[in-house]
């Protein structure tokens, strides 16, 4: 099977591969810039940009952590990451992943537009008002993440009625992805919710709205998986975890080692303060949390609205902002290491260019 390019809004992605947005700091300037430069779509995570360049872009710190959402989602840090990625990829299409559940969602979307991002991808909630934050930036393409045809229908109806526009593409994500899921624990295990069973209904719904391009995500690992998704009607795939195994991935070497050392049974679903189950590697932290002996929860960064200023963090036993940033900084004792269900298959660190060649050629 030969692979075609993807068209997202006014942008053409030569290779039908979108790199997943991984925060804190796993997909920032080096990874996203290099993926875009090599013909895929590089995606910068907007989460925790106040940690960029050793917290240089946080105006206020408490206990060495960015204080409040204005510093955790640092406009200056985000802009610096985008500028640095641009030095690598030039004017090739570059995307940002901005979670709908974050505090300051609208402001962070506008920050991305002002910094010159071409495509905005949003999951972790139903972004029914996403277009209002990109007003004045008609060239910025908007891509929601959904887990069902019903969710896409709701988004399209609302966007068409309120803003007279529809998504420029849609990502359909199954329950084998890393990080937060669009399903409950029980739904993650159900056969009808597996990626191979939800792609076709989303493609069918997308066609009703004028052939919106559909990108499949969650558990996609190799050329065979890509071909399967294309055969189901998707025009491309999104892959996150596989890109952690690259030299250019912005993750700490310790993060990469955790995944390289993970076994299949080490990658599990866990509760999260965001209100959705999340998939990651069982580590020292997860064992401490199970015994309710995890680190103190102080809600310094106020990162996500569903957490209600640390209330949900206290219920599940950890602060997600602090633990993800610990992982970014290489703290294997207290870090939270998200991974897709296939993360145990990582067995080497290669270049982005080599990975994309493997995915396209099946070597």
Q: Which terms would index this structure?
A:
TIM Barrel, single chain, 14 helices, 2 domains, 3-stranded antiparallel beta sheet, 363 residues, alpha/beta, 15 strands, 8-stranded parallel beta sheet
Characterise the protein shown here.
By secondary structure, the protein is an alpha/beta fold. The chain has two domains: 6-251 and 348-361, TIM Barrel (Alpha-Beta Barrel), CATH 3.20.20; 256-328, no CATH class. It has helices at residues 29-37, 52-55, 68-72, 75-89, 105-114, 149-163, 185-189, 195-208, 223-231, 253-260, 284-290, 311-316, 320-328, 352-361, and strands at residues 6-8, 11-13, 17-19, 42-45, 61-62, 65-66, 94-97, 119-122, 141-146, 170-173, 179-180, 214-217, 236-239, 267-270, 278-281. It has an eight-stranded parallel beta sheet with strand order 3-13-12-10-9-8-7-4. It has a three-stranded antiparallel beta sheet with strand order 11-15-14, with no helix packed on it. It has a two-stranded antiparallel ribbon with strand order 1-2. Helix 1 (29-37) packs parallel to helix 4 and helix 6 packs parallel to helix 8. The longest helix has 15 residues, at 75-89. It is globular. The two termini are 14 Å apart. The mean pLDDT is 93.
């Amino acid at each position: 099977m030969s692979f075609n390019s993807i068209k997202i809004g006014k942008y053409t992605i030569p290779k039908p591969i979108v790199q997943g947005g991984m925060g804190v700091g796993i997909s920032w300037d080096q990874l996203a810039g290099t993926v875009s430069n090599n013909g895929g779509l590089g995606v910068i995570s907007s989460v925790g940009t106040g940690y960029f360049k050793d917290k240089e872009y946080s105006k206020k710190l408490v206990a060495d952590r960015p204080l409040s959402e204005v510093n955790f989602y640092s406009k200056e840090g985000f802009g610096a990451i985008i500028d640095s990625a641009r030095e690598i990829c030039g004017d090739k299409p570059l995307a940002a992943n901005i979670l709908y559940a974050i505090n300051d969602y609208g402001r962070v979307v506008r920050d991305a537009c002002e910094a010159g991002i071409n495509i905005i991808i949003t999951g972790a909630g139903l972004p029914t008002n996403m277009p209002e934050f990109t007003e004045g930036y008609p060239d910025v393409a908007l891509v929601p993440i959904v887990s069902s045809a019903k969710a896409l229908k709701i988004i399209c109806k609302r966007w068409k009625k309120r803003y007279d526009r529809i998504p420029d593409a849609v990502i359909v994500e199954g329950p084998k992805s890393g990080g937060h899921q669009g399903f409950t624990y029980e739904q993650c295990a159900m056969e009808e919710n597996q990626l191979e069973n939800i792609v076709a209904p989303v493609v069918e719904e997308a066609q009703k709205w004028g052939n919106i391009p559909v990108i499949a995500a969650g558990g996609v690992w190799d050329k065979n998986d890509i071909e399967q998704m294309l055969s189901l009607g998707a025009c491309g795939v999104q892959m996150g975890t596989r890109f952690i195994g690259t030299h250019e991935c912005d993750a700490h070497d310790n993060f990469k080692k955790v995944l390289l050392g993970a076994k299949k049974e080490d990658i599990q679903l866990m509760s999260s303060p965001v209100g959705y189950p999340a998939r990651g590697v069982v580590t020292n932290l997860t064992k401490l949390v199970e015994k309710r002996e995890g680190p103190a929860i102080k809600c310094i960064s106020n990162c996500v609205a569903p957490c209600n200023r640390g209330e949900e963090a206290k219920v599940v036993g950890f602060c997600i902002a602090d633990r993800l940033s610990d992982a970014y900084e290489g703290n294997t004792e207290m870090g939270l290491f998200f991974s897709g269900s296939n993360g145990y298959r990582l067995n080497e660190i290669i270049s982005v260019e080599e990975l994309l060649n493997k995915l396209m050629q099946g070597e």
